[in-house]
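Exam revision sheet. Question 4 asks you to relate a sequence to its structure. Input first:
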Amino acid sequence: MAFPSPETQQSQYKYDVFLSFRGEDTRKNFVDHLHDALRRRGIVAFKDDHDRDIPRGENIKPEILGAIEKSKYVLPIFSENYASSTWCLEEVAKAVECKDINEGSVIPIFYKVNPSDIRKLRGNFGKDFAKIEETYTGDEGDIKRWKDALEKVADLAGRELKDRYETKFIQQIIGEIENKLGPRLSYVVGNLVGMPPRVANVVEHLCLGESDVRSIGIWGMGGIGKTTVARAVYDRICGKFDDGCSFLANVREISKKNGLVYLQNQFLCDILQENNLIIRDDHRGANMIKKRLQHKRVLLILDDVDEKEQLEKLAGDLDWFGCGSRIMITTRDQHLLLQYGVNAIYKAEELSINEALQLLCLKAFRSNNPPAGFEKLVEQVIGYSNGLPLGLNILGSFLANRSLRQWKSELARLKECPEGKIIDLLRLSYDGLKQKEKEIFLAIACFFKGKEETYVTKVLDNCGFYPDIGMEVLVHRSLIEIRDNRVWLHDLLQEMAWEIVRRESPEEPGERSRVWLFEDVCHILSKNSGTGKVKGIVLQSGDWRTVCLNPESFTNMTNLRLLDVRAIHLSSGVNHLSNELRLLTWDNCNLMSFPPNFLPKNLLELNMRDSFLTSLWRGEKVLEKLKVINLSGSELLIEAPNFTNFPNLERLILKGCKALSHIHPSIGILERLCHLDFGDCVNLRRLPDSVGNLKSLKGLKLSGCSNLEELPESIGGLDCLEELDISESAIIHLPSSLTFLKNLKKLRFRVSEGRRQNFWRTLTGMLRRALNSGRPRLPSFLGLSSLTELDMSGCSLLEGEIPSDIGCLSSLRSLDLAKNSFTTIPTSIEHISSLEFLILSHCKNLEVLPTLPESIIFVEVDKCLRLERISNPFIICTVPDSGFCFTNCSGLLPQDLGLTLEQKYSLSLLRYTICYSTRFPDTYVVSPCPKGKIPEWFSYQTVGTLLSIDMSPNWFHNKWRGFAICAFFERTNCNSCQDLENARFIFCDLYVDGNRLDPTVKFPIRFVNSGCLWLGYVSSLLFPPDTNWRGSNHIDVSLRISNPVLKVEKCGVHLVYEQHPTDFDDFLVSWSSSLPRDWDSIYREFRQPRKGDIISVPSTLRNLFKMHEGVVSCGVCKFIADLENPGGRSYATLLYVYWNPGKLRRLSPQDLLKGNS
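Answer key, C-alpha cells:
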C-alpha cells in the first residue's frame, strides 16, 4: 500500500488551531488547560509562549502572522484585558483578513466577558480599546481594522463560558473542533489504496459503543498490511480513549532484543505518562499493568506477536483493563489469537485486482491507470505479487520511471523466481541498487534497524558509503523508512537481507560479509574461520554470553570495519586487529593494551567500557578521525594518552578509571572537545591548566574525584561550559574565575553523608581573597545569569553563607539545598522568577521558609525539625504530578493545644473541602493521625472498607449537598517506601438500595504514609439527576485503594447539609473544647457577603484551581493577612496543604474577599 503523490487538502495547513489570547488573563490557567486537552486529542495547536507585552513601536512577529495563515481554524479567546494588547488585536484582524469567517474558520471564545461588550466596545473591554486609540502611534488605519475585526468576530456564534465548569467548557470546544476537522487521515495511511473498507471493518468489530472490554485479532501473512491496518485504526479511534493509548510496535523483535520488561515499561509510560517507573522483572511488570490499569479505559495495540508469553505479560486478561477498553493484536499465527480468546478475528485480505492495479500505478506511474503499452506488463506484475501490498509497493517503486524495454527485461527475471517466493520477488528491487546502496541496505538490515538516523549516517559515512544519498535512494525505493528519527524496514525485507548475506556462503559464516548471530560469531572466532570477506561483526546489545577466542581469531579478518561485541573472553592476548576498523565497541575486554601493529587510521569511535586496559597504545598512534573515546569503568587504566594524536576528539569519557592519576597536558589542544567526564577517578589529583583552552567544552564532570582538591584558575576561560559537576570531590580551592562562566546552566556541589564539606564557604573565602586581583570583589551569583540548576545539598552551609543576591539567578529552575545548617534562606529567593523545584529536606536548623516565587511547582521539606513558619502558605499548585511535601516537620504542629489533631482540624477541613468540591470534585485532604481514630462527628463509622447505612425517613431534603467520607490508612509493607511516591487512587462506590451508582468517584493520592486520616467530599451533583434519593432507605459506601502498600482500616460517612456559617461554627465548637487561635478569621476568608450560602465560591476563586490530583496536608503554619478592613490585621493558624495539579498562583486575602458567589 502506498501514499499517493498529490497532497491532501488537510496537508495545506501546518496547524489545526491557532490560539489568540491575552497572556496575563489566561496563559497559566484556561489556555494552558485548553492547549493540553487539544494536544491529548491529537489536535495540533499553535500557542505562542512568549510575553505579549510588546515594547512601544515594536511590531508583531512575522512568524505569528504566518502561523495564522497556516492554521485551519483560529480561536480568539476574548478575556477582560484582551483589547489592551495591540498584538492580540492584530491577530484577530489577521484572522478576519485571511479566513472565511462565514464558513466557521474563526471560532470566538468568550472567557468571562460579554460578547456585546466586545461588539459595542463598552465596559472594561471598551476602556482598554479606548486607551489603545489614545496612545497608539502606528498607522491610523490599524485602529479601524481592529475595530471592524472585533465587531465581525463578536457577531459570530461562539462559545461563552458564563457560569459553567471550565473542564466541561473545554470539552465542548474540543468536540466542536473535532467535528469541524472531521475524520483524520492517518499519518501512516493517508489515502492508501483499499484502506477505508478494511479500517471500517475492524472498527465495526471493535464495537466501540459497548462498555465491555473487547479484544480483536488481525491475522495474515507477512507483508499483507496487518500493521498498516492497525495503525490506521489506531489513528482513527485513539481520540476516544481519554485514559490513554499505546501502540507497541514490533513486539516479536523488541521482546527478543530488549525483553518484555522494556515493552511493559513503554506500555505503562504511554498510559500513565510517568517516565520514572521501575519494573524489576516481567512478572512484576504484569502485576503492575493489572493494578494500575484495571480502572482505566485504554486502547492497546500489540503489533507482530509471535509467542503466547508476550500476550500473557502485556495483556494477560481482559479484567486487567477498565470498562470500554479495546485490545488489538496483529500476528501471523492464528492459533495465538484462539489461545488468548479474542472476541473476533479479522483476516487481512490481499488486494483485489482493481486495488492492486491502482496501487501499482500510483507507485510506478503516479496515476491511477497505466500508460499505453504497459497494460499487459502491469497485469503480469500484479499476477506475480498475488495481491500482496508489500510486493506491489516494492516492485512499483523499483519499476518507476523505467522504459517499456526495461519493464520487459525485469519481468523476464521475475519469471525465474519460484512461485510464491515473496523473498525472491522483493530481491528484484535490491538487485537494481548500486553497489554502495546495497552495502548500506545490508548494513541497516543486519546491524542498524531501529537505530537513530544520525548515528547510522555517521557510522556509514565513516565507512565511505555516502549514506546521505544512498539512504535517500532506499527510502524512495520503499526499502527503508525513517520514523521518529530512527531507521526501520519491514520484517520481510530484513529477512531478505539476511538471506542475501547467508547465500554468500551457506555453510561457512566466516566467508560472509556480515555476522550478527551469536552462534555464527562463536564459530568464526573459536575456529579462526574468519576471512577478509567479513566486514562487520555486531552482536545484539542484550546478548552477554561469553565467547572464548584465541590470539589469532581476528588475524585473517583484514577488512573488518565494524566490531561491536560485549562479553568476548580472551584465553590470551590478541595478535592482530583490523586496521580498517571504523567502530570498535568491546565491553569487558580483558586486553591489557592493543597489539603494537594496530593502527586504525579511520577509527571513528572507541568504546571499551569496563575493560582491563592499562594504557591504549605503546608508542605514538595518530588517529585524526577519532571522535569518541569511552573507557568508563576501566579500573586498571593508569594514564591518559597523548591527545596530540587525536586532534578531532569530541567526547572523552574516563569515568570510573580508578587508577588514573595523571592527565596529559596536551588535552588543551582538543578544540572540538564538547564532553569531558572524569567522574569517580578517585586517584586523580589535579587537572592541567590547559583544560581552560577547551573552547568548545559544554560538560565537565568531576563528581566522585575524592582526591581532586582544586580546579585550575583557567577554568574561567571555558566560554561554552554549560554543566559543571564537582559533587563528592575533595575540591577545597574554587577559582574566582568561576563567576566568569556566563553560559553555565548546571552547577552541582552535592556532598553525601559520608563526606561533608563546606564548598560554598570555600568559594566565599576564595572570592574574598581575590579583592586585590581584579576579580569580583564580593561572593555573588551575578555572573551566573544562565544557571538553571544549582545543587548545594550536603555542603553544611551555615547561616548567611548563601549569597544574598541569589535572586539574580533569573534562569534558575531547580535549587537543592538539602542537608545544610542554615536557619533562614535569603528573602531574595522570591525574585527567582523561573524557580520551579526547591529541595530543603534534612535542613534541621531551618526555622523560616521565606516567600517563594509564583513560578514554584514543587517544594520538598522533610525532617526540618525547627521549621515554625511558612511565609506564604497559600501558594496553590495546580501542575500535574507536583506539589508541596512537608513531612516530619514537628515544629509546624501546634504543641500548645490539648485536642487531638483529627478533632481540631477535621471539621474545618471538611468545610474547606466542601468549598472547593463544588467546583472541583476531586478535592480532598489527608492529615497525620497517629491514633487512627475517625472523628466523632462522623455519624456512621465502621472497621474495614464497606459501610452500610440505614437512612432515617426524612434524611433527604433540598438542603442536602452530599457525603463527607473519611478513611484511616495503615501501611501493609514497611519496606516499600518508593511505592508511596507514585500516584495512587482511592475509589469510592455508592450503592442505593443495592444498585451501584455511576460514576465511581476517584481521588488521587500521593506521599501518603502510615497513620493518615483521609477526608473527602462527594457532591450529590456528581450523580445522575434522576437518582431516586428521596425514596432510598439503604445506602452502602465502599472504598478501595489502588496502592498495595496501603490499607484502609476504618471509614466513616457524614451527611452534609447547607448551613449558615455561624451554624457551622457552632457545630465546630460543639465538637471541640478549644479551637486554634482566631479560628473565626479562617472562616471569614471563605465566607461570602450573602448569608446562608456556604457552598458558594468567590468568583475570583472559581478558576484559580483545577483539582485533578487532590491535596495532601502536611502540617500547620501561621499566616498573617489583611482581612475585611485595610487598617486591621488578624492572625490565623492554618493547615498547610499539599496541592497536586494545573498552573500556579498565590492566593491572597484580597482574592478570598473579592467577588460574589
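Marking note for examiners. The first helix runs from residue 23 to 26.
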